[in-house]
Design goal:
The protein is an all-beta fold and 110 residues long. The chain has no helices and 9 strands. 0% of the residues lie in helices and 46% in strands.
Amino acid sequence: RSIGRSSSRVRRARRGRALIRGRVSDRRSGEPVAGVTVAARAGAREVIAITDEDGGYEVEVDTGAWALTFYYGDLRVERRPEPAARGWVRVIDQVIATELAIGKSIIRSR
């Protein structure tokens, strides 16, 4: 399954670690959502990723149960902990309602 990376290479977890990857898309349009902060937490451990232009994200984690939280503007979507074992690649896609996010847009001029 593609997560929107431009490379066709499939990344594997380093020895003793696991990968959690996926794609974030809009509930109404189905389009990918870039700029979503994805926080993976297990106890006091936390790993952060930001979705790319294709809505893809990837975090490398230690083994254990990792809870994912997706932040977009002031919108927060929490998922229950998902197990990640050594050598695993977990694909966890998330659909969010971007129309519910209230936030400021920053427009850069050239």
